[in-house]
Design a protein that fits this description.
Layout: E1 5-9, E2 15-19
C-alpha cells in the first residue's frame, strides 16, 4: 500500500486493516474486496 488505509476481509469473514508501507500476499486466482473506509485516497500496488 503506497498511501492511505483499507479494510481487507479475509476467508473467515473477519477483516484486517492494511496501511501505507504494509504489504500482503494474496494468492493468484483469489478474489479480494479491499475497501477504502478512510477520508484519504487509498493507493494500492499490485505485482503479478
Amino acid at each position: 500500500m503506497l498511501q492511505g488505509y483499507a479494510e481487507l476481509p479475509d476467508d473467515e469473514n473477519s477483516s484486517r486493516i492494511i496501511g501505507a508501507g504494509k504489504s500482503i500476499v494474496i494468492d493468484s486466482g483469489l478474489t479480494h474486496r479491499v475497501q477504502n473506509n478512510g477520508t484519504e485516497d487509498c493507493v494500492p500496488v499490485s505485482v503479478e
